[in-house]
Task: structure prediction
Amino acid sequence: MGISRQEFERRYRAIRALMQRDGLDCLLVAGLPDDFNRGNIRYITGSGRGGCCLFPVEGVPVFLTGPGQAAAPKNRKTIEALDLLRLSETTDAAEQAAAELSRMYRGGKVGIVGMGLVTVPMYLNVKGKFGDKLTDAAGIFEQVRAVKSQEEIEKMRIAARVADKVFEVLVDMLRPGLSDYSVYAAVKKTIYEMGCDYSFDLIDAEGARMNMTFFPTGERLKAQSTLFVEITPAFEGYYAQLPVTLPIGKYPPEIRKMVFVWEEANRAALDILHPGTKVSDLYRTLVSIVQQHGYVSPLRPGHAIGLDALDFWSITGNSPVILQAGMTLAVHPSIMTRPGADACGLGYTYLITGTGAERFSKVELAGLVA
Result:
């Protein structure tokens, strides 16, 4: 499985066309092994471990690796584009990156993708070599990653099926007194048993709130309260998100009202989830419905999603993004009495199609209040 050679070659052609347009000889692409900063590296190497790749407008990209790692037996399993790369072993990535870029340089510009992820020594070395020829080229990757290929879409569909299974596991196991450590263990166990690489799973088991953390904090579920989990597994690198607020027994009356407000907001969003919609209009649609019912929605009500849990842009009131067929996004308006107080968060991951939107998840969240 994994991404095909043909798909990587398609990506390389698309990136290089934009590099030629912008007069770029080569790129320094940096990433971290976390849920928000690994996507660019994985897009060109197939590795989810972050790192540094030097990408020329012509020729073979160079992926930096540690000493003795170029011939590691598991490289073929962890670096999907291995046959299209040259692995360069080094004990000094900052020096090696500058040296590799120098070999690719033709007198044009040198782009950095992931400026905030480059180490200070690496940046100083590269800046010392190329001076004002150095430029931020992150926009190239934002453009090529915005619209998903069929291979990418299928992996997100699988990730959504994993999220649905986690939902089913949680519904079956939740009971008063259960520790959030046990909940989190069940989430991770299900995700990994179904073949996922990693996952991003916010959790809050304290009362009926949404004061999310990236890990359990020792809370125990209480009767007539809720559990919030943002279930976000990544299958072969591609995330799908299913945020849920689950009742422990029955929803508290105020949370029950919020679920109906979410249903109304979600229906309104579906009416405009199609090519040509401004993301800023989507934001206003979602938030205005929440506010009309006397609640607040201070958290972003969604974002693009793909190789990162948050792929470049969020649903905001000033977003310049216009939806296109092939884009994927998570839509999840928060509904709160006030920040830090009782709240509800629910949502789905969608694919923008030629005429509307496909919901990846098969779970019917509206049924939670039936």
